[in-house]
Write a structure and sequence with these properties.
single chain, 7% strand, two-stranded parallel sheet, 3 helices, mainly alpha
Length: 86
């Protein structure tokens, strides 16, 4: 089964308790939350226009500093001069 949710709807399911809504909404939402939390194989599809992924940066590829004739610092990043701006 596939369920299409907006990203904020998926967040709503995390703390959903079934209180403060109409009976029809609660019945439908209980079914959706049950499927998301308890039915193995349920897929989640979150349509979006842009996805930003925050991934760890492990430093530049070797050829980049070499191409510009720069060195690396102790952490493997391109070495720079320390600049203080006041």
């Amino acid at each position: 089964m596939s369920i299409v949710l907006r990203p904020h709807h998926l967040l709503c399911t995390q703390g959903y308790s079934g209180h403060g809504y109409s009976e029809a909404f609660v019945e439908h939402m209980n079914d959706v939350v049950h499927q998301l939390r308890e039915v193995p194989g349920t897929q989640r599809e979150l349509p979006c226009q842009m996805l930003l992924v925050a991934a760890g940066f492990l430093g530049p590829e070797d050829y980049v500093p070499e191409a510009f004739g720069t060195s690396r610092d102790a952490r493997g990043n391109v070495a720079t001069r320390r600049t203080v701006v006041s």
